[in-house]
Design a protein that fits this description.
135 residues, mainly alpha
C-alpha cells in the first residue's frame, strides 16, 4: 500500500505546480493517503512498538510526501515576486489591477477568496487594546 501511494504521488509531479483538484490522479492520491494511513494505523494498533518509533514511521513514510506537496503548493504562490492577487470575485489580477493571464493555484485562490470574504463579514475591530500586559 505504501509503495502504491508513493507511486501515485510520483505521478502528480507531471503537472506539479498546476495540480487540478478535480483530476483523477489528485483524488486518487487523497484516497491513497487515507488508505495508507488507515492500514498502517491498524497495523500499529495490533502490534506494539514504542510511540516514538510509530510517530517517526508515520512522519517519514506516510505523511512526509503529501505534506511536502501541500506546503510547496501553498508556499509557491506566495513566495513568487510575480504572484497574482485574487479579486473578491476570484479573478487573478496582475500588479496593475488588470486580469492576469497566468494560471493561479486553485487551492491558494480558494483560501485567498475565503480570507477576503471573512474580512468582509467580520471586519477588524478598531477598538482592540494592544497595550494590555498579556498581548
Amino acid at each position: 500500500i505504501g509503495i502504491t501511494s508513493h507511486l501515485v504521488y510520483y505521478s502528480l509531479l507531471r503537472k506539479f505546480p498546476q495540480i487540478e483538484l478535480t483530476s483523477l490522479i489528485f483524488i486518487l492520491s487523497a484516497v491513497m493517503l487515507f488508505v495508507d494511513h488507515s492500514v498502517w494505523f491498524l497495523y500499529f494498533t495490533q502490534n506494539w512498538y514504542p510511540f516514538e518509533e510509530i510517530l517517526g514511521f508515520f512522519l517519514i513514510c506516510v505523511w512526509l510526501v503529501p505534506f511536502a506537496f501541500f506546503i510547496s503548493l501553498t508556499a509557491n504562490e506566495g513566495s513568487l515576486p510575480y504572484g497574482s492577487v485574487i479579486s473578491s470575485s476570484g479573478v487573478p489580477l496582475d500588479s496593475d489591477g488588470t486580469p492576469s493571464r497566468r494560471k493561479v493555484n486553485r487551492v491558494v485562490a480558494f483560501f485567498q477568496f475565503l480570507k477576503h470574504k471573512r474580512e468582509e463579514i467580520i471586519p477588524a475591530h478598531e477598538g482592540w487594546r494592544t497595550d494590555h500586559k498579556y498581548l
